[in-house]
């Protein structure tokens, strides 16, 4: 099924903006970016990445959607606590939560990124993070264009 990542992202962002008083900037560099896949599953990935960015930071978060090398690129940047390099692989494992997150009162199961990763794989995409402790994190999702 054809899915427009721009519309899907706008809808998901609107859901968060309706629920939380947080600043989410959205830089869409195209009117439409069509990929192939399951819209509910892809929305879940976008939801998980935005939800985490909001949970693990207090400031504005930035979302960018672009296209490069026949791929749609969806990026979420936050200016929160960041993720140490040695944890950056493990956060995609099931039930894995970093120490700080574990002691947070906002609970979570540690499944979000594992689910996002499984869905991304099933769509022949890639999901990865770049992060610096104390500065923030950028999660990037790439999907082959339709
Ligand atoms: P849930 O399953 O409810 O989403 P969770 O947020 O703990 O719980 P994941 O989404 O899988 O689970 O994230 C795993 C861990 O990765 C988190 O506990 C947190 O330590 C770390 N993490 C994820 N996103 C970020 C982020 N944007 N900034 C800092 N740490 C993050």
UniProtKB/TrEMBL annotation:
Keywords attached to this entry: ATP-binding, Cell membrane, Kinase, Membrane, Nucleotide-binding, Phosphoprotein, Transferase, Transmembrane, Transmembrane helix, Two-component regulatory system
Compartment annotation: Cell membrane
Limits of the Histidine kinase domain: 1-146
Superkingdom of source: Bacteria
Main location: membrane
Record has Cell wall biogenesis/degradation as a keyword: no
GO molecular function, one term: kinase activity
Record bears the keyword DNA-binding: no
Protein name: Signal transduction histidine-protein kinase ArlS
Organism: Virgibacillus natechei
């Amino acid at each position: 099924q054809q899915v427009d990542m721009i519309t899907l992202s706008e809808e998901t962002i609107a859901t968060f903006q309706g629920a939380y008083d947080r600043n989410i900037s959205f830089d869409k560099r195209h009117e439409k970016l069509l990929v192939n896949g399951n819209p509910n599953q892809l929305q879940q990935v976008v939801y998980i990445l935005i939800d985490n960015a909001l949970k693990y930071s207090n400031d504005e978060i930035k979302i960018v959607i672009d296209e490069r090398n026949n791929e749609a690129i969806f990026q979420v940047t936050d200016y929160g606590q960041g993720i140490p390099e040695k944890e950056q692989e493990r956060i995609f494992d099931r039930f894995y939560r970093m120490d700080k997150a574990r002691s947070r009162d906002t609970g979570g199961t540690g499944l979000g990124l594992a689910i996002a990763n499984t869905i991304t794989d099933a769509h022949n995409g890639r999901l990865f993070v770049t992060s610096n402790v104390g500065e923030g994190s950028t999660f990037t999702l790439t999907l082959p264009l339709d």
